């Protein structure tokens, strides 16, 4: 016997609409608690400025989501808020400020203390996670016009959580593909072990991305980069979906670096036909060539910019949305609201796995397209125009 979808949709819609009524997100005790703490918070804001710690649940979740997408100078697995204990390990801080300063990030006590090194004092700003030079009190001053810290920011070469993740991904790729290459030599071109998992992906990149977009004549010199960039982005995307709180490819500086690599390789390996179509397009009236040349040159710059923004925006937005939905479980203090939040976050996590593969594929595909346009051989007979 079939069941109509209309009553089921009505029931689901009714339950969702009634969530604010049946949940206990804002019980009376919470309101009294917030009102009781309001003068205390106001006092803290008067003495400590706008950087007072959030007290209500929504503000705490918002601060946690914001902190999740930032880089960190320590690797914390989880924390006990009541006891003030953090479980994890510290990372080395390497900065250049009147000489090389090297010390452990444990001196910061998770951003709560001022670190001293050779008579210099440093503090981590809670809003951007960066290290600034301060006095012994650790005061970070903000510019009244811009709102950004006015303290001196030393050159930071630290091994942060993102850098450690990049090093781990690079080591894992080296280990996996070294074993894959060895298995080809031992078994007469047949992969064995873990290499069997990655061989179809390697062949897919060669047969479906490199050869169709670059051509059989030139694709081999770009294969090493295309394989590296695909698996590098893919591994970092997958690592970012773990509960470790890592957001590498959602960092604008990382995606900028990857896009610059594609930009440099494209322009350094381009042939004369590529530059000829930019600065003196064949088959176009000479007056129009002068107009089109700046537009074409602007397109050369826009290409890596689009690569950078596309990868960054998709991964960053995925982290924000997923962490926000998980935070709803602590706002909807009911079995129904929390269950729906959990189910939605689980479904979104599955979708994010697809996005992880898709973004690695798109970045690799667009890079191959740019390489193909750089080495494409054109045959124009301008005498006929």
What would the keywords be for this entry?
single chain, mainly alpha, 8 strands, disordered N terminus, disordered C terminus
Task: Describe the protein.
By secondary structure, this protein is mainly α. It has helices spanning 5-17, 19-22, 28-48, 57-68, 161-186, 195-214, 220-240, 252-268, 272-279, 286-331, 335-375; strands at 74-80, 85-90, 92-96, 100-104, 115-117, 120-124, 131-134, 155-156. Strands 4-3-8 form a three-stranded antiparallel β-sheet, with no helix packed on it. β3 (92-96) and β4 form a beta hairpin. The radius of gyration is 27 Å and the shape is globular.
List the helices and strands and how they pair.
Elements: H1 5-17, H2 19-22, H3 28-48, H4 57-68, E1 74-80, E2 85-90, E3 92-96, E4 100-104, E5 115-117, E6 120-124, E7 131-134, E8 155-156, H5 161-186, H6 195-214, H7 220-240, H8 252-268, H9 272-279, H10 286-331, H11 335-375
Antiparallel strand pairs: 1-2, 3-4, 3-8, 5-6, 6-7
Helix pairs in contact: 4-10, 5-6, 5-7, 6-7, 6-11, 7-11, 8-10, 8-11, 10-11
């Amino acid at each position: 016997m079939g069941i109509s979808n209309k009553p089921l949709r009505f029931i689901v819609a009714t339950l969702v609409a009634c969530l604010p009524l049946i949940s206990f997100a804002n019980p009376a005790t919470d309101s009294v608690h917030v009102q009781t703490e309001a003068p205390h918070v106001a006092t803290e804001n008067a003495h400590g400025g706008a950087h007072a710690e959030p007290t209500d649940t929504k503000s705490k979740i918002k601060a946690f989501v914001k902190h999740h997408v930032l880089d960190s100078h320590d690797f914390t697995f989880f924390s006990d808020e009541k006891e003030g204990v953090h479980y994890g390990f510290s990372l080395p801080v390497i900065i250049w400020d009147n000489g090389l300063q090297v010390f452990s990030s444990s001196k910061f006590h998770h951003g709560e203390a001022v670190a001293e090194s050779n008579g210099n004092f440093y503090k981590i700003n809670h809003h951007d996670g960066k290290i600034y030079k301060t006095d012994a009190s650790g005061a970070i001053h903000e510019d009244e016009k811009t709102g950004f810290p006015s303290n001196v920011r030393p050159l930071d070469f630290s091994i942060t959580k993102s850098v450690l993740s990049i090093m781990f991904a690079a080591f894992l790729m080296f280990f996996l593909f070294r074993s894959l290459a060895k298995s080809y030599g031992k078994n007469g071109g047949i992969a064995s072990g873990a290499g069997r998992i990655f061989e179809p992906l390697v062949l897919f990149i060669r047969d479906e991305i490199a050869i169709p977009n670059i051509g059989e004549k030139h694709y081999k010199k770009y294969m090493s980069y295309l394989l590296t960039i695909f698996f590098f982005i893919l591994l970092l995307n997958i690592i970012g979906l773990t509960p470790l709180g890592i957001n590498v490819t959602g960092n604008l500086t990382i995606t900028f670096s990857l896009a610059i690599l594609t930009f440099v390789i494209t322009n350094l390996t381009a042939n004369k036909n590529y530059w000829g179509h930019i600065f003196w397009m064949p088959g176009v009236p000479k007056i129009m060539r002068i107009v089109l040349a700046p537009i074409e040159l602007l397109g050369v710059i826009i290409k890596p910019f689009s690569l950078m923004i596309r990868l960054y925006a998709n991964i960053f937005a995925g982290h924000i949305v997923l962490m926000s939905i998980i935070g709803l479980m602590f706002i909807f203090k009911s079995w129904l609201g929390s269950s729906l939040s959990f189910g939605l976050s689980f479904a979104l996590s599955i979708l994010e796995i697809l996005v992880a593969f898709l973004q690695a594929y798109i970045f690799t595909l667009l890079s191959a397209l740019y390489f193909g346009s750089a080495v494409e051989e054109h045959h124009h007979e301008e005498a006929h125009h």
